[in-house]
Structures are given as structure tokens and as C-alpha cells.
């Protein structure tokens, strides 16, 4: 061993002996464990009873279909968001109980029910999960599904790499979940404050879980970024020029350029920290030439672009939803594209605003302050363009539009508080306070709103039926009530001086507002129930809610120019693009038939289990590294290498769907479309948007 | 916006579907992806170089740049790397002619020279250990080891890849898969040489200036 | 918009939290109750910044709301519908131009403001401090998880309590033994990091006698939430009396004593101790030791039960 480890280590089991020495027997954990096990057993039981294993293996686990991969990304993201919500519930309830020196303490805590190290793990896990294995997968999944459809591609540029990216993200989530039961998680905040993450101050395995979970997941994200950029550059259908690419695809491009360039920096940062913890080097230690501020710099050089990595696709979603429900093309397409790229570019030069209070000179701080505020300009342009899209429009307020509107308001308010934080003279009194927490939840919720809007908006495209509107609206309003109820008090507490990450609240004057936030969490819980109901009701009514290709009747971009649900080959014949809003253009000219003159052979990638195998091996590798079980780590690393080499000899990676098969499948889908015709507005009908004649409203979307 | 004005089209005349479209050219798509990967790899080195620029001052009383850096030795290492890249280039010239033996010879030469480089690097670091200049000694040494060995690790992967390619060329000849991999490996190998130039300039040369 | 009753009513529920804004008395809003020129200036810029931004935020918000209402889909709004309006050069200039102007103004104030409250040399204090009086020097050392305030000229030190005279500029030098902390007294001065092996600076001036809350604003591990200290601003004469009293204390502080003091301790009891005969140069010695690799490791045992014996051994 190159470093001094507290606690036992042996060659066979690594540090697993720690489990016996430190008692990880917290009832709170036990509850979480029970819950996960029960849910897991139910799912396994269902799969076995319903004889679904073959289906799951063939259609999901080994798939390379970008839509299925996207769906799995989103499911993982939603499940992890639920876990993150549980963490939030624990943070909030601890802070509502542990107030003042007289507050009671149970389960080994002096106040409340979570001792400090446990509480610290909870918010660290919450932050890391929400950003990296909830928000990011949901957005990546959305891009995965929609971008190839929007540019008329059959699949991503590298379908196999795409599946690998998914499984690495799943491994990242799995490691966080394992940390809940076997060992502990990092207690140093989602940013991993140095030198708190160094071995002397974090002697357990928590920080190692945090490192490997992020490291493995970020490799997956980088692969996804390469894939998406290459797809957009190389896989566009004929006529899809750069000036015609839908805005969501443009923002995905901007976002993935950020990911491609910034995630490697995170990788390096974590690797250096790993060397410190595993090899005893001196990168971020205090003594012997270490430089802890180097960590902070490197982390935020990734961390700041990362927040724009997640917000840009959300902006893209808004740019698709708002025109559809305004029945009008997006205002200022070119400006929108320029603004996205500008945000991506500026995002690289502002990282220091996360530590104005480090003691840098006033001119350095002033430079980063002004650079930060520059982002407000292109973002503002986006807000104005959405507003002008609404100007002289005909707005319908279906659920996706409600989410989009909520998102715009969150952007305006969160942006304003961000601009306050960007002024050092103000930052000095609100840095590390719950004001910052409120600012970025404001921003992240903008993304969550946009993502829920996008899920509702594109759901019928992927599954062929719409989500229930009534429960969807309940979900939206309860969620919004929860948002306001949690985060307005939080801003207020910021002005009262409350700092973040407190497991014990010494000042009793904050108590009423903390309780108000508790109520807000309750509203969130109700909204989640509404969401579950929405899914259940929609699945029950799927026949009634079935829709054809153009689910909303006013959508504009290419993804609506194929069947719903989208067949695995996307388009029977590659479409030729004539306009920026191709589908709206076709609708205008009455060219909405999805039946080409003839069918041709389609070339498709074959399913493969290799990505899944690599995923399993990297999980073993991550786990072994966390617990320092060197033999297992070595074996799994070598096995990964061998599997990759083995795969490179596999020549049987694609196949041809004969034209006759395509024709047969297309016939079925056209027949289905005919059958569900009545459920949705007829394409080119009254709700046909910009190119339709302004007549009677459609059957489904009655105006009020 | 002109594209949104209501120009008229004759529905009978526009073609909506492209029956001949076979997508993209697989080799260029693969190569583009590899360029993108190398961009991300370049970011790794950019971050390491930036860090090195800071740590180079943090010798913490231990050996400094001047004590451990031997630019002449490193220059010979550079010569070896560049000869290896050149040999690989010869192999690729043979690929254009479809000359299998030429490709194999080029790869073999590049591989052997790569091994020589790693051997030289091994000796350098064995000497450092003997002198007690281990990465645990100071922030400067941590950074020095990390940056040079990250490049070394890339070289090891390159050699492994070359072995696999040698095998595939012998077994399968110039199939599409083999060709794009050979092209990507050339990019990778060149890239390692470029990174080495940066290491040589920023670490070795700067160390004695 | 749908006519369903239930979600309609729910919309009003969403407005409920606004009640909280009015309901709280202002004395608890530390940021709005500054007691020294630095905090005052920071509040001043906060208000200024928001005011400038509202010039654009309020109209934008109102515009969006108005559009939402005006162009909702129904027979009455049909007439205004214009699906071909997707570009306008004049608007283009406005949407880029107005934010540019606003950001320029904000940037200017940001630049001016940072110099006024710059922790290393706050120009705002130069005009406020009583002329002639020397600034009081205090060295701040944070440990896991306590505060030590050293008054080097007076050769005294206090743990977890800060006493300062009013109307006198106080200059702080700050460092930490183990991990990063953050020095913050909301009503007197903004935050500055306290980093091991390094020295940061901060200055403040209290204009009103009173007791203010101070704490670490940066997570530093298990005992972080208890890392609070009272800041007592007292008159110069009271301060002098207090110094004399502390100088009488039997508890001394040499570097060896400090090494004992700096072991991980959770200050749950809020204990303060007075030290006399503080070893000169203690502050620099702490920095030097940290740079040479001195650490105060956190034991695994601290990760568990706060009522366990191991834990209690580390609390105070
Ligand atoms: C998706 C996430 C996201 C987004 C989009 C943003 C957007 C912004 N952020 Fe925030 N942030 C995000 C996530 C975070 N931020 C943080 C912290 C943080 C800090 C440091 C706080 C501190 O620790 O002391 C600053 C200074 C900012 C500034 C900004 C600014 C100026 C923007 C701008 O992009 C906003 C631009 C939008 C505007 C301005 C509104 C719309 C514009 C209009 C209507 C036009 C006109 C207006 C003007 C010209 C004023 N952020 C942290 C803290 C992490 C941690 O410490 O744990 C996180 C996670
Ligand atoms: C469901 C609604 C949510 C609630 C109620 C909630 C609540 C909280 C609370 C109470 C904290 C701790 C505040 C403190 O340190 O004092 C917190 C921290 C945090 N949350 Fe959330 N959160 C929610 C959703 C999200 C989402 C969607 C994201 C990101 C996409 C997110 C990201 C974070 C991050 C990064 C932190 C900081 C963790 C740290 O300090 O290291 N949260 N949240
Ligand atoms: Cu930022």
C-alpha cells in the first residue's frame, strides 16, 4: 500500500472488512434497502411469470436502436430522479427537525435523525444524482430519440457505441445505489471540496464511490457526445442543410460540443484526485507542493460548462414546443442558433464565479463577473424570441405548453438571481448560502419543466398514444405549487443569511420558513403520485388515445413525418428535405402521405450483447477499485480489453431488411394510422398551423 | 424569412423520398468520430499541461526540474517516436497500393520503434525511482510522472492496437473495417507524436531554459 | 385552456407561498440589516443591481404574460393571427442591444463595487475609519471544527468567540489547519475562504455595538454545522477591559498546546476558552506546518453515532 489506510485491508476482500468495523446499520438505510429490494423482486417476478426475459433480452438489453436506448436513458433518469427526490425529502425533514439547541435527536444524531456524516452523504448524493444520473440521462435520452428523427437518419452514427454509453451511465447509477447499502457515499458535497476529499479527512470508501461513479459515467457521456456530433454532421437526409436543421438539434449540437470538450477535464481532475487517494501523490493535498485551489479551478472548468450542457437541450425543447402550440414558426431561427453557440462559447470563460470569495484580486474577479453576465445577453435573446413566437400566434395550452411556459418564467427568475450572484460585491454575502441553492434549483427546475414538457410532447411519437391531459395538468399544477412553496422560502432564507449544507440549524428564526418548505415537499410528493396516475391512466386508455404520425396536428419538424410509434428503421424511405420546418411545409402542400411509391432494402445494425457485457465488467471494475480489491479490478480491466478486441473481429454486425418486409410492416402501420385517424386532428386540417387556413378549431383541441 | 413565404409547389413534381440514399460513407464517418475522440483526448492533455504549469514550481524542497530532466535523452526519444510514425506512414503508402507485405512491414517497424521508446522511458523512470524522485515526493514530481506516463500509457495502447491490426491485416486483408482502423490508428499514432512534441517542449526543453 | 375545474382551482394554490414574503419581520433578514460599512455597501449593490435588472426583467415578464393572454386560441384572437411573422430586423437590434446595455451598466457597477469591498483593501473603509487609530490585528485559525482568534499584539487568543471594538478598523489574517473554511459575519462583512497552508485577508469595521452571528460558510466535514462564533462589538474601553481580563487567564497557548487544540472536535456545547501568553508567530507556524505536510486526520469513528463514546471523546 502506498497510502495509509484507516481500517483493515486484505488481498482477497480489499477493504470490505470495514463493513464489520464500522456499523452501517442505520434504520433509514434499512428502509431504502427494503424498498429497493421489494421493487426489484416484484419486477423480477413479473418478468419471469410473464415469460418476458426473452423479450427483454432481445428488444431492450441488447438493442442498438437509438429510440429504445433513449427510452432506457429516460427511464433510468426518472428512477434516479425519484431517488434524488427521496434524498431531498430527507434533507428537508432533517432541517425542519434539527433546529435550535433544544431540538430532539434520535438514531444516533444529536439533533434530528441524521448524524452529520450521514446527512452530508445525503445532499452529496442528491446533488450528484440529480445532475449526473437524473437530468443528464433524461436529456441525453431525449437527444438520442429525437435528433436522428429530426435529421432523417436511420440511427446514430455509431449504434454500438450508443448502447455502450447507455450501459456506462447505468453503471454510474448502479454504483451510487450500491453505495447506499455496501459502505457509504462521499460526504464532501457534489463538487467534492478539496482537501476534504483527501484521504485523511475522508478515510472511508465514500469518496471513492463518488469518484468511480462519476468517472465511469462521464466516459459514457463523452462517447455519447462524439456520437451525437458525428450523427448531426454525417447522417443528415438529403436537403437537410445546416440552415434547415431543427433548433433542438442545433442546441443538442452546442450542448454536446460542450460535453466533448469539458468532460475530459473532469476525467483528469478526478484522476488526479484518485492518484492522491490511491498512490499518495500530492496534487490537491495541503502539504508537499499540493495545490487545493487547483482542484477547485479544474472542477469548475468542467462544472460550469456542465450546467450549460444540461440547459441547452432544454432551450431546444422549448424552441420545439412553443412554436407547435403557438401554431406558428419559431421567431428568429438564425438568432436562436447563434445564441446557443454563443452560450456554449462563453460558458468556457466564467468558471471563477464559483469562488469569487477565494481572495483573488479585484480585477480578476471583475473580469469573471463581466464574462459571466455576458451569458445573460444570448439567453435574453432566446427569451425574447420565444415571446415573439407567441406574438400574433394562436396558443393552445396543452400540457407540454404549460410546462414550457413554466420553464420560461423559471428561466427569467433564476437568470435574474444568477446575475445577482455574478456581482462579487453581492456574491460575498450570498455565496454558499441557500440563496445559491435556490438559484440553481430554479435553473434546474427549468430543465425539469422543459424535460417533462418534452416527454409529454414526444411521448406519442415514441409510443403511439398521448399521455392523459387531465392527470397531466394535475401533475403540472401540484408540481408548480411545490416549486414555489419550496424555493420562494429558500430565497427568503438566503436573505436571512442561512448558509447551505447545514445538518443542524442553530438559528430558530429560520424554522417557520423551513416548515413551509416541508409543505412544498408534500406538494411535490402529491405531484409525483399524479405523474404515476397519469402514466397508469394513459396506458389503460392507450387505444382511445392512439394517434397517427402527427400527434398534435400542428407540429413542424421532420420527426413527425414518420409513423407513431416510430418503426425501428425510422423512415421506410429516406425523406428529402425542402424546408426548415419540413413537416409543416408538407402539410401546407398536402404532401402528408407517408406512403412512398415503392420500398427499398434497408441496411440496419444488428443487436449485440457486447455493450452490456462491457457495462457489467466496468461495474465490477468500479466496485473493485472502490474497495481496493486489486485482483478483481485487474481481471475486469483485462476482460474489458479482450472483449473489445474480440468484438473487432466480429464481421456479422449488420443486416438487410428486404424491401418486401418493409412493405409489409409499412402496410400494417398505414392501416393503424387509418384506424386512429379520428383520434387526432387530421394532418393538414384546421389545426395545421402556419400553413393551414384559419378556420374552425380541430376536434381534439377545442379552444376556450 | 424566405423559406417560410408561401411559395407554390406542384405536388406532382416534388420528390419527397430518396430511394437511392445509402446514407454516409462508413469510412469517413468512422474517421470523423475518431477525430472527435482525439479532440477530447487533446483536452485531457491540455488540462494536464495547464496543471503542470502550476505544479512545476511546487518541488517542496525535493528534486526540481533541473535535477531530473535530461533533454538530450528526451531528444533521442523524440527521434525514435518520429521514426516510428514515419515507418507507419510507409505502411500506409503501401496500403494505397494494396500491398499487404508493405503494410505489415511498416507496422512491424513502427511497433518495434514504439517498443524502443517505451524501453527508454522505462529506464528514465527506473533511474528516477533509484534517485528517490518518486511521485509521492512532491506536487511537482506527481505532475511530472502523470503527464509523461499518461503519454506513455497512450503509447502502450497504440502498440496493443498495432498488434491487433497486424493480426487482422494478415488474417482478413484490406476489408472496410480493417482499412478504417488502419487510418484511425495512423491518426492516433501521429497524435501521440504531436503530444510528445508538446511534452518535449513544455516539460523537457522548458526545464532547462 | 381546458375547462376542467380541479386544475383551475389548483392554480391559486401556487400563489400561496407569496404570503411568506410579507409575513416575516425584517430583523431576521441579516443581509438587510447591515451594521458596518462593508455590509452596507454590499447591500447597496444588491439593491442597485436588482433595480437595474428589473428595468428589463419586469417588462419582459409582463410582455410574456400579456402575449399568453392576448394570443390564446379562440375566436376573438383569431383576427390577429399571423403565422408568417418570423423575423424583424428592428427587433433583432433591440433584443441584442437592450441586454448589452443592461449588462454594460451592471458590469460597470460590478467593477466599482468589487474595489469598494475588496477583502484585501476595501476602499470603503478608508473613508470610514477614525483617523489616527491603528487598525486592530487579529489572526484567525480554523481547525476541525473550531475557531481560534489570536490577538498577536495583545498576546491573547479566544476560541469560538470574537470580540472587537467599534469604530476601529479590524484587519484579519486567516488560515486553516486542515480543510477549507469560510469566514462570514453577515451583518458586518462578506465571505472569504480560509485555506490550509495559505493566508487570506479580510477587514471590517463595526459601527454599532452589539452581538452578531458569525460562522463558517463552507462545508468542512462533520462538525461544520456547529462551527459558530459570537461576534461582540463593544466600545473601545470595554474592549480594553476585556483584553486585560483575558490576559489574566491561566490557560496558555504554545504551539504544542495548539496541536492538542487542533485535534478534531465538534463544538456542540458552544464552548469558548480564553488563552493568555500566546506563542508569538503561532499563525505563521501553523501555515508552515501545513505546508510541510502536517495533517489532523478525521478518525473513522467520527462517521457514526453522535452519542457513541468515540464521538463524545471528540466533542466539547
Ligand atoms: C442549469 C443550470 C444553471 C444555469 C442555466 C445557470 C445560469 C446562470 N448562473 Fe448559475 N446556473 C446554473 C446552475 C448553477 N449555478 C450555480 C452558481 C452560480 C454562481 C455562483 C454562486 C456562488 O456559489 O457564489 C453564479 C455567479 C451563477 C451565475 C449564473 C448566471 C449569470 C447564469 C445565466 O446563464 C443566467 C442567464 C439568464 C438570464 C439573465 C435571464 C433571462 C434574460 C433576460 C430576460 C434578458 C435580460 C436580462 C439581463 C440582461 C439581466 N451561478 C450553481 C452552483 C453549484 C454549487 O455551488 O453547488 C449551479 C449548479
Ligand atoms: C424535487 C425537488 C428538489 C428539492 C426539494 C431539492 C432540495 C434540495 C435541498 C434541500 C438541498 C440542500 C440544500 C442545502 O445544502 O442546504 C439540495 C441540494 C442540491 N440539489 Fe436539490 N432539490 C430538488 C431537485 C433538484 C434537481 C432536479 C437538481 C438537479 C438537476 C438538484 C440539484 C441539487 C444540487 C446540485 C444540490 C447541492 C448539493 C451539494 O450541496 O453538494 N436538486 N436540493
Ligand atoms: Cu457557473
Automatic annotation (TrEMBL), chain A:
<feature type="transmembrane region" description="Helical">
    <location>
        <begin position="330"/>
        <end position="351"/>
    </location>
</feature>
<feature type="transmembrane region" description="Helical">
    <location>
        <begin position="69"/>
        <end position="86"/>
    </location>
</feature>
<feature type="transmembrane region" description="Helical">
    <location>
        <begin position="443"/>
        <end position="463"/>
    </location>
</feature>
<feature type="transmembrane region" description="Helical">
    <location>
        <begin position="366"/>
        <end position="388"/>
    </location>
</feature>
<feature type="transmembrane region" description="Helical">
    <location>
        <begin position="295"/>
        <end position="318"/>
    </location>
</feature>
<keyword id="KW-0249">Electron transport</keyword>
<feature type="transmembrane region" description="Helical">
    <location>
        <begin position="209"/>
        <end position="233"/>
    </location>
</feature>
<feature type="transmembrane region" description="Helical">
    <location>
        <begin position="608"/>
        <end position="624"/>
    </location>
</feature>
<keyword id="KW-0408">Iron</keyword>
<feature type="domain" description="Cytochrome oxidase subunit I profile">
    <location>
        <begin position="51"/>
        <end position="578"/>
    </location>
</feature>
<dbReference type="GO" id="GO:0004129">
    <property type="term" value="F:cytochrome-c oxidase activity"/>
</dbReference>
<keyword id="KW-0679">Respiratory chain</keyword>
<dbReference type="GO" id="GO:0009060">
    <property type="term" value="P:aerobic respiration"/>
</dbReference>
<feature type="transmembrane region" description="Helical">
    <location>
        <begin position="630"/>
        <end position="649"/>
    </location>
</feature>
<feature type="transmembrane region" description="Helical">
    <location>
        <begin position="518"/>
        <end position="537"/>
    </location>
</feature>
From TrEMBL, chain B:
<dbReference type="GO" id="GO:0005886">
    <property type="term" value="C:plasma membrane"/>
</dbReference>
<keyword id="KW-0472">Membrane</keyword>
<dbReference type="InterPro" id="IPR024791">
    <property type="entry name" value="Cyt_c/ubiquinol_Oxase_su3"/>
</dbReference>
<dbReference type="InterPro" id="IPR035973">
    <property type="entry name" value="Cyt_c_oxidase_su3-like_sf"/>
</dbReference>
<dbReference type="InterPro" id="IPR000298">
    <property type="entry name" value="Cyt_c_oxidase-like_su3"/>
</dbReference>
<comment type="similarity">
    <text>Belongs to the cytochrome c oxidase subunit 3 family.</text>
</comment>
<feature type="transmembrane region" description="Helical">
    <location>
        <begin position="34"/>
        <end position="56"/>
    </location>
</feature>
<feature type="transmembrane region" description="Helical">
    <location>
        <begin position="187"/>
        <end position="205"/>
    </location>
</feature>
<dbReference type="GO" id="GO:0004129">
    <property type="term" value="F:cytochrome-c oxidase activity"/>
</dbReference>
<feature type="transmembrane region" description="Helical">
    <location>
        <begin position="102"/>
        <end position="122"/>
    </location>
</feature>
<feature type="transmembrane region" description="Helical">
    <location>
        <begin position="68"/>
        <end position="90"/>
    </location>
</feature>
<feature type="transmembrane region" description="Helical">
    <location>
        <begin position="142"/>
        <end position="167"/>
    </location>
</feature>
<keyword id="KW-1003">Cell membrane</keyword>
<dbReference type="Pfam" id="PF00510">
    <property type="entry name" value="COX3"/>
</dbReference>
<comment type="subunit">
    <text>Heterooctamer of two A chains, two B chains, two C chains and two D chains.</text>
</comment>
From TrEMBL, chain C:
<feature type="domain" description="Cytochrome oxidase subunit II copper A binding">
    <location>
        <begin position="133"/>
        <end position="245"/>
    </location>
</feature>
<dbReference type="GO" id="GO:0005507">
    <property type="term" value="F:copper ion binding"/>
</dbReference>
<keyword id="KW-0732">Signal</keyword>
<feature type="transmembrane region" description="Helical">
    <location>
        <begin position="43"/>
        <end position="69"/>
    </location>
</feature>
<dbReference type="InterPro" id="IPR036257">
    <property type="entry name" value="Cyt_c_oxidase_su2_TM_sf"/>
</dbReference>
<dbReference type="GO" id="GO:0005886">
    <property type="term" value="C:plasma membrane"/>
</dbReference>
<dbReference type="InterPro" id="IPR011759">
    <property type="entry name" value="Cyt_c_oxidase_su2_TM_dom"/>
</dbReference>
<dbReference type="InterPro" id="IPR045187">
    <property type="entry name" value="CcO_II"/>
</dbReference>
<dbReference type="GO" id="GO:0042773">
    <property type="term" value="P:ATP synthesis coupled electron transport"/>
</dbReference>
<dbReference type="InterPro" id="IPR002429">
    <property type="entry name" value="CcO_II-like_C"/>
</dbReference>
<keyword id="KW-0249">Electron transport</keyword>
<keyword id="KW-0813">Transport</keyword>
<dbReference type="InterPro" id="IPR034227">
    <property type="entry name" value="CuRO_UO_II"/>
</dbReference>
<keyword id="KW-0679">Respiratory chain</keyword>
<feature type="domain" description="Cytochrome oxidase subunit II transmembrane region profile">
    <location>
        <begin position="23"/>
        <end position="121"/>
    </location>
</feature>
Amino acid at each position: 500500500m502506498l497510502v495509509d489506510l484507516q481500517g483493515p485491508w486484505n488481498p482477497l476482500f480489499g477493504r470490505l472488512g470495514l463493513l464489520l468495523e464500522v456499523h452501517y446499520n442505520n434504520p433509514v438505510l434499512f428502509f431504502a434497502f427494503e424498498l429497493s429490494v421489494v421493487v426489484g423482486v416484484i419486477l423480477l417476478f413479473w418478468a419471469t411469470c410473464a415469460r418476458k426475459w426473452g423479450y427483454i433480452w432481445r428488444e431492450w438489453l441488447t438493442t442498438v436502436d437509438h429510440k429504445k436506448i433513449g427510452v432506457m436513458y429516460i427511464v433510468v433518469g426518472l428512477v434516479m430522479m425519484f431517488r434524488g427526490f427521496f434524498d431531498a425529502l430527507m434533507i428537508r425533514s432533517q432541517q425542519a427537525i434539527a433546529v435550535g439547541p433544544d431540538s430532539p435527536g434520535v438514531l444516533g444524531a444529536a439533533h434530528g435523525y441524521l448524524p452529520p456524516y450521514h446527512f452530508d452523504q445525503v445532499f452529496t448524493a442528491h446533488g450528484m444524482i440529480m445532475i449526473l444520473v437524473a437530468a443528464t440521462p433524461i436529456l441525453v435520452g431525449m437527444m438520442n430519440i429525437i435528433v436522428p428523427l429530426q435529421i432523417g437518419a436511420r440511427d446514430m452514427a455509431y449504434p454500438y457505441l450508443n448502447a455502450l454509453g447507455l450501459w456506462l451511465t447505468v453503471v454510474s447509477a448502479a454504483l451510487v445505489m450500491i453505495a447506499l447499502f455496501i459502505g457509504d457515499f462521499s460526504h464532501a458535497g457534489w463538487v467534492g471540496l478539496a482537501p476534504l476529499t483527501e484521504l485523511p479527512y475522508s478515510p472511508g470508501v465514500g469518496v471513492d464511490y463518488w469518484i468511480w461513479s462519476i468517472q465511469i459515467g462521464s466516459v459514457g457521456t463523452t462517447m455519447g457526445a462524439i456520437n451525437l456530433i458525428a450523427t448531426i454532421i454525417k447522417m443528415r437526409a438529403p436537403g437537410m442543410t445546416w440552415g434547415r436543421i431543427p433548433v433542438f438539434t442545433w442546441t443538442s449540437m452546442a450542448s454536446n460540443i460542450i460535453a466533448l470538450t469539458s468532460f475530459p477535464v473532469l476525467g483528469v481532475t478526478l484522476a488526479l484526485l484518485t492518484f492522491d487517494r490511491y498512490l499518495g501523490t500530492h496534487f490537491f493535498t495541503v502539504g508537499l507542493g499540493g495545490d487545493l485551489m487547483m482542484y477547485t479551478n479544474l472542477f469548475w472548468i468542467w462544472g460550469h460548462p456542465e450546467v450549460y450542457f444540461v440547459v441547452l437541450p432544454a432551450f431546444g425543447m422549448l424552441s420545439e414546443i412553443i412554436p407547435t402550440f403557438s401554431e406558428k414558426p419559431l421567431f428568429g431561427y438564425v438568432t436562436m442558433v447563434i445564441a446557443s453557440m454563443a452560450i456554449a462559447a462563453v460558458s468556457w470563460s466564467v468558471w471563477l464565479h464559483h469562488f469569487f470569495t477565494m481572495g483573488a484580486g479585484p480585477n480578476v474577479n471583475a473580469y469573471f463577473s463581466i464574462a459571466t453576465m455576458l451569458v445573460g445577453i444570448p439567453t435574453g435573446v432566446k427569451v425574447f424570441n420565444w415571446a415573439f413566437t407567441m406574438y400574433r400566434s394562436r396558443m393552445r395550452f396543452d400540457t407540454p405548453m404549460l410546462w414550457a411556459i413554466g420553464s420560461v418564467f423559471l428561466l427569467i427568475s433564476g437568470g435574474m438571481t444568477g446575475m445577482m450572484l455574478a456581482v462579487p460585491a453581492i456574491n460575498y454575502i450570498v455565496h454558499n448560502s441557500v440563496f445559491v441553492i435556490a438559484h440553481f434549483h430554479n435553473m434546474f427546475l427549468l430543465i425539469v419543466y422543459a424535460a417533462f414538457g418534452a416527454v409529454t410532447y414526444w411521448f406519442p411519437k415514441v409510443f403511439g398514444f398521448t399521455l392523459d391531459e387531465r392527470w397531466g395538468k394535475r401533475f403540472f399544477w401540484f408540481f408548480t405549487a411545490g416549486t414555489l412553496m419550496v424555493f420562494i422560502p429558500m430565497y427568503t432564507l438566503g436573505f436571512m443569511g442561512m448558509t447551505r449544507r447545514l445538518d443542524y440549524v442553530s438559528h430558530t428564526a429560520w424554522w417557520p420558513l423551513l416548515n413551509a418548505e416541508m409543505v412544498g415537499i408534500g406538494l411535490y410528493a402529491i405531484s409525483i403520485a399524479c405523474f404515476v396516475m397519469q402514466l397508469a391512466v394513459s396506458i389503460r386508455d392507450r387505444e382511445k388515445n392512439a394517434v397517427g404520425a402527427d400527434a398534435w396536428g400542428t407540429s413542424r419538424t421532420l420527426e413527425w413525418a414518420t409513423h407513431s410509434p416510430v418503426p425501428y428503421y425510422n423512415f421506410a424511405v429516406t425523406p428529402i428535405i425542402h424546408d426548415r420546418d419540413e413537416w409543416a411545409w408538407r402539410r401546407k402542400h398536402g404532401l402528408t402521405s407517408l406512403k412512398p411509391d415503392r420500398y427499398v432494402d434497408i441496411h440496419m445494425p444488428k443487436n449485440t450483447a457486447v455493450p452490456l457485457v462491457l457495462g457489467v465488467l466496468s461495474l465490477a471494475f468500479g466496485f473493485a477499485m472502490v474497495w481496493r480489491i486489486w485482483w478483481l479490478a485487474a481481471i475486469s480491466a483485462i476482460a474489458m480489453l479482450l472483449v473489445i478486441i474480440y468484438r473487432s473481429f466480429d464481421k456479422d454486425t449488420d443486416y438487410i431488411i428486404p424491401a418486401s418486409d418493409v412493405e409489409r410492416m409499412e402496410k400494417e402501420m398505414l392501416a393503424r394510422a387509418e384506424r386512429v385517424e379520428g383520434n387526432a386532428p387530421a394532418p393538414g386540417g384546421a389545426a395545421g398551423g402556419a400553413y393551414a387556413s384559419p378556420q374552425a378549431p380541430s376536434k381534439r383541441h377545442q379552444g376556450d | 424569412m424566405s423559406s417560410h413565404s408561401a411559395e407554390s409547389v406542384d405536388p406532382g413534381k416534388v420528390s419527397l423520398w430518396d430511394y437511392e440514399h445509402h446514407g454516409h460513407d462508413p469510412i469517413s464517418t468512422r474517421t470523423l468520430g475518431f477525430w472527435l475522440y482525439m479532440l477530447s483526448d487533446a483536452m485531457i492533455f491540455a488540462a494536464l499541461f495547464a496543471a503542470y504549469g502550476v505544479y512545476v514550481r511546487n518541488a517542496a524542497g525535493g528534486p526540481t526540474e533541473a535535477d531530473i530532466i535530461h533533454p538530450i535523452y528526451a531528444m533521442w526519444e523524440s527521434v525514435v517516436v518520429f521514426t516510428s510514425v514515419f515507418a507507419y506512414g510507409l505502411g500506409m503508402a503501401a496500403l494505397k497500393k494494396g500491398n499487404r507485405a508493405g503494410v505489415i512491414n511498416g507496422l512491424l517497424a513502427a511497433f518495434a520503434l514504439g517498443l524502443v521508446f517505451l524501453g527508454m522511458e522505462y529506464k528514465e523512470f527506473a533511474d528516477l525511482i533509484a534517485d528517490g524522485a518518486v511521485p509521492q515526493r512532491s506536487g511537482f514530481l506527481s505532475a511530472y510522472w502523470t503527464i509523461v506516463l499518461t503519454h506513455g500509457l497512450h503509447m502502450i495502447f497504440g502498440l496493443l492496437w498495432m498488434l491487433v491490426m497486424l493480426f487482422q491485416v494478415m488474417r482478413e486483408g484490406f476489408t472496410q473495417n480493417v482499412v478504417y482502423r488502419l487510418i484511425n490508428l495512423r491518426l492516433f499514432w501521429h497524435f501521440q507524436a504531436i503530444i510528445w512534441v508538446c511534452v518535449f517542449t513544455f516539460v523537457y526543453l522548458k526545464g532547462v531554459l | 385552456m381546458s375547462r376542467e375545474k380541479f386544475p383551475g382551482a389548483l392554480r391559486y394554490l401556487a400563489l400561496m407561498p407569496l404570503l411568506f414574503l410579507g409575513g416575516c419581520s425584517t430583523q431576521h433578514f441579516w443581509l438587510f440589516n447591515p451594521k458596518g460599512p462593508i455590509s452596507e455597501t454590499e447591500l447597496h449593490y444588491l439593491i442597485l443591481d436588482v433595480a437595474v435588472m428589473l428595468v428589463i426583467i419586469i417588462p419582459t415578464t409582463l410582455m410574456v404574460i400579456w402575449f399568453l393572454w392576448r394570443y390564446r386560441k379562440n375566436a376573438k384572437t383569431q383576427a390577429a393571427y399571423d403565422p408568417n411573422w418570423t423575423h424583424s430586423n428592428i427587433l433583432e437590434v433591440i433584443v441584442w442591444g437592450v441586454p448589452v446595455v443592461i449588462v454594460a451598466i451592471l458590469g460597470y457597477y460590478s467593477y466599482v463595487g468589487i474595489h469598494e469591498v475588496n477583502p484585501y483593501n476595501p476602499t470603503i473603509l478608508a473613508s470610514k475609519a477614525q483617523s489616527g487609530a491603528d487598525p486592530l490585528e487579529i489572526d484567525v485559525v480554523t481547525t476541525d471544527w473550531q475557531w481560534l482568534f489570536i490577538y498577536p499584539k495583545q498576546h491573547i487568543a479566544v476560541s469560538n468567540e470574537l470580540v472587537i471594538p467599534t469604530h476601529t478598523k479590524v484587519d484579519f489574517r486567516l488560515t486553516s489547519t486542515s480543510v477549507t473554511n469560510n469566514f462570514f459575519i453577515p451583518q458586518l462583512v462578506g465571505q472569504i475562504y480560509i485555506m490550509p497552508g495559505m493566508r487570506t485577508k479580510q477587514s471590517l469595521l463595526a459601527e454599532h455595538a452589539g452581538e452578531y452571528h458569525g460562522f463558517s460558510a463552507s462545508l468542512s466535514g462533520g462538525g461544520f454545522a456547529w462551527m459558530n462564533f459570537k461576534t461582540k462589538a463593544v466600545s473601545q474601553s470595554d474592549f480594553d477591559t476585556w483584553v486585560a481580563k483575558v490576559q489574566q487567564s491561566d490557560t496558555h497557548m504554545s504551539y504544542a498546546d495548539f496541536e492538542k487544540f487542533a485535534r478534531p472536535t465538534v463544538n456542540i456545547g458552544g464552548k469558548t476558552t480564553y488563552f493568555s501568553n500566546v506563542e508569538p508567530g503561532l499563525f505563521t507556524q501553523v501555515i508552515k506546518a501545513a505546508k510541510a505536510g502536517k495533517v489532523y486526520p478525521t478518525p473513522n469513528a467520527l462517521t457514526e453515532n453522535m452519542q457513541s463514546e468515540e464521538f463524545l471523546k471528540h466533542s466539547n
